[in-house]
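Re: the request from the purification team.
They wanted to know what the chain is likely to look like in 3D before they choose a buffer screen. I agreed to run a prediction and write the result into the notebook, where they can find it.
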Amino acid sequence: MAEEEPPRTAPRYTVSQDGVVITPEVWASATDDDARDRLLAASMSPEEFASYQRGHQTRDEVDRLLSHSPPPAPATGPTYWMKLRSVAAAIRPRSRLTFWYGAEKGISHRHVDPLRLTRVRRHWYLDAWDFDKEAMRIFRIDRMAPPHVGDRLADPGPVPRWTPSDDFRAQVLNTGSRMAADLVLRSQDDDALARLPDVDGILDPIDWRTFGFTALVGDWRQLVAALATVDAAITVRGPDDFREYLTRAATRLATISGRTEEDTP
């Protein structure tokens, strides 16, 4: 007599240290929209699920995160910059951010207090306090679905002077051996973030079109070359040795071009 097969049970989402995680296998087993909505509802509060149903989050976003491995380099299209602008806009007022986040194990719905943005090797990372985990976490922007910016936090804690992500930043940025310049960038356009110099650094949003940026480079020549391509107003707040280097470079370039101060109209 053939051995009976054990009854099959429907796959379940997994609960990890970071909360509810929907794996690709579980998502694929949900064969219709109602089944997928039940999975989404399991990882969201009733208010968030109602917001999702009104269009703030879509199944397509979740499907994209689950169906594609993280790209080797961040996208630079409109969706990517929209996500980065939304995150940057939430930092200064300390507004709650909610978003779907994709990783190799699956996706999870995150609720965070955004603290700072760092660019490392052309990737943007968000340092944030994860309310579900009650710990600091690092999120890569290109692994997020478009985030929802909520209300200001009623009683936000102080921005920590040190977090575990500082170890990550020190390791990949080599902050101890690199030169740092304190810049302010202003743009007349909403894509001011896209106009930042193409170097590693730490972002300090001031408003939609103004950003403080600590640029981290191996030498000043690298930063001067990057700044020469930026179509926005830039102010150097320091250090003095970079200001002096910039002045010497400008004088040298004026000499090469054959122009002098007397030639300036």
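For the purification team: The CA atoms of residues 32 and 38 lie 10 Å apart.
Please add any questions underneath this entry.
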